[in-house]
Structures are given as C-alpha cells and as structure tokens.
Amino acid sequence: MSRLIGSTVLRGVVGATGLLVILEVAGRTGVIDTGFLPLVSTVLARAAELAVDGEFLTHGLASMEAWFWALVVTIAVAVPAGLLLGVVRPVESATRPLIEFLRPIPSVALIPLAILLFQNPMHMRMSVAVYAATWPVLINTIYGVRDVDPLAKETLRSFGFGPGTVVMRVVLPSAAPFIATGVRLAASVAIILVVTAEVVAGGISGVGVFINTAGSGNRVDLMIAATAWVGLFGIAVNALLVAAEKRVFRWHHNRLAGVS
After folding, report:
1. Is 108:196 a contact under the CB 8 Å cutoff?
2. What is the mean pLDDT, run by run of 10 residues, along the chain of 260 residues?
3. What is each CA distance from 20 to 17, 67, 233, 239, in whole angstroms?
4. 133-142 exposure pattern, b = at least 16 Cβ within 10 A, e = fewer
5. Which end of the chain is more exposed for a tag (fewer CB within 10 A), N or C?
C-alpha cells in the first residue's frame, strides 16, 4: 500500500514538474506573452520571497484563522444536525425540501448579504465559509448514519439501551469515517470561500486582500505566487487529513479494500 501511494505521489510530482517546465519554455520562447503571464521561474522566486515576507505572513495568518474557526463551527453544527436527520427519519423528511433548496445556492452569491449582516470582516468570511462547508459534512454524516448495521443497533436495544446510548456507542463510531471524509472535503471548500470572500469584499487582512492589492499594482507575479501558496496550503491540509483518516479508521479502509 505504501509503495502504491509513493508511486502515485511520484507520478503527480513528475506531472506537475513537467507542466511547469513546459510553461517556462513557452514563456522564454515567446509562445506565451510574459507581460500577460510571468515566467514560472519568476513566480517561484516571488513565492519564495513571500514565504519570509512579514506582510504576506500576516495576511496568511488572518486567512488561516478565519478558515480554522469556520471549520470548527461547521463541525459543531453539521455533525449533530446530520446525526439528528439520519436517526430521526420524520425530521429528515420534513427538512429535505429546505436542504435541497439551500444546497445549490452558490456561496459566493451570499457574500453581499454576509457583508450587510456582519460588520466584522472575520465573521463575514466565516459565515460564508461555514455555509459552503456545512453541506459536505451534513450529507456525509446522514449517509454514514444510514450505513450503520441495523443488527448492531437492534442488539443494543434488546439489552435495554436507550436511543442516546445506541447513537453514542454504535451510530457515531460507525458513521465516523463518513464524517471524516465530509470534514476533509469541507476543509478545502472553506479555504476557497475564505479567500474568495476576501477578494470580493476586501478588508484590511487576508490573502485575498493581498491578491487584490497586488492586482491593483499590476503585480501579476505576486498574485499568482500568493494564489499558489493558497493551493499548497490546501494540498497540505488534505494530505494531513487523509493520513489521519487512514491511521484512525484503518479498519474501515481495510474493509473497503477487502470488498473491492
């Protein structure tokens, strides 16, 4: 398994490196106008400079703080709601039309409303990110609850355990891998929405604000470099969560491997 993962990572690195080399050659040979799209080497140099730039790091920490608390709020709200909707079918049936109505609404379209409702820029960014990140956690929690073995629940009930005990001892542990997957998806979504809200709404801090400032100064190299750091942060977070999932829920992955 580790050899397979290593091979997959190596192929990804080779593919990404190949693309960067092609773009660099295209820029140096004039195929791509470097006035429009800077050289890859230039962008990488700017990205390295940003890694030790105090101003950029301050903006990055502001975005990370909003992302972290948005994810915390999302988990605190979506997991209990998903458990309730998954366990109590009448409640799920009653709220399903509302969920299906709200879920397709683009989160970006809610940024102007969030600006009106929340004067604090941190709360504004968090609200939009929480709205977008709630759906993957909520839906995965519901499906995780539905996937629980009915025999296990009936066994506890036959021994006189109440609904709360059944949920805590059987439903929640069984649904945990699905919830973890939802949290991993929500983490990426929250990053996107936090930076998007900063770009659209502006403010005094955040990577999106830095990108706006660089754009107003026609510093495309800084814009792309800052955006690249957001992408690298997303990749790092996803890799950490995937590794945690495989370690904590090894039994679940082994079961899936056995089925396949």
Report:
1. yes
2. 58 80 84 83 92 94 95 96 90 91 90 90 93 95 85 75 76 88 95 94 89 90 94 93 85 54
3. 5, 29, 19, 22
4. bbbbbbbbbb
5. C
Comparing CA positions, the residue from 56, 116, 121, 231 lying closest to residue 129 is 121
Q: Whole-prediction pTM value?
A: 0.86
Dihedral-angle region of residue 160 (phi above 0 means left; psi in -120 to 50 means alpha; beta otherwise): left
The number of residues in the chain equals 260
- The model's pLDDT over 92-102, given as tens digits with 9 standing for 90+, comes to 899 999 999 99
Determine contact, residues 111/128, Cβ cutoff 8 Å. Answer: yes
Whose tokens are 């990055």? That residue is 60
Which residue has 């990370």 as its token pair? 64
Which token pair is 96? 């399903």
